[in-house]
Amino acid sequence: MKVIALNGSPHKSGNTAYALGVVGKALQAEGIEFEIVEIGGNRIHGCIACGKCGEREDGKCAITNDIVNEVLPKMKAADGIIIGSPVYYSGIAGTMKCFLDRTFYVASANGGWFRHKVGASVVAVRRTGGSMTFNALNHYLTVSEMLVPTANYWNVIHGRAPGEAAQDAEGNQIMQLLGKNMAWMLKMREQGKGIEPKGEEKVFMSFIR
Ligand SMILES: Cc1cc2nc3c(=O)[nH]c(=O)nc-3n(C[C@H](O)[C@H](O)[C@H](O)COP(=O)(O)O)c2cc1C
Fold it and tell me: pLDDT digit string (tens) for 28-46?
């Protein structure tokens, strides 16, 4: 089983990466493969709402000059996905938001790739906006019918300069527990293969006459 973690920070060794690493160690201790993919340091365009991913159903985004189409197959192949972001102005860091809008839209428009994968959100913050960003990230997971493991608090770690999050003892415990619970959920998911509820055709109701 494999989990990929998407680092939405431009810092490869920053606090988001640190938190993802703590979750990853707990996963690896349970025999689960773990890889961090760098997202935040790239140039990534926002979704242009062209709808081509749904029209073509080729599993690709129509914007082809960035990493989105390279990372999509990795996300599709993984058993679990962790989406990590630093807090920028009490929300998801902009580059990561662009990436998530496009990848989750392609996945949904091509048959719901992420349905019943295990998905978790992780946030790094200096002071305020952690829960709001955690909620915003969770929207991608829950609309995709992903299985979402929890910890003993919301998945937020505190620190400002890269590396400071190592000092947040409570945040470290949260990330470690998240990894353990995610590993257990992945194993339960394996046991449940073949008896999953069937997906349903989406009902759209836009309140337009
Ligand atoms: C553009 C920008 C906006 C930020 N906005 C906030 C904020 O709203 N609240 C906060 O507590 N910290 C804010 N921060 C601080 C980062 O969330 C914090 O330093 C975090 O640990 C960075 O994670 P990283 O090392 O993974 O990049 C901001 C940082 C930047 C660069």
Answer: 999 999 999 999 999 999 9
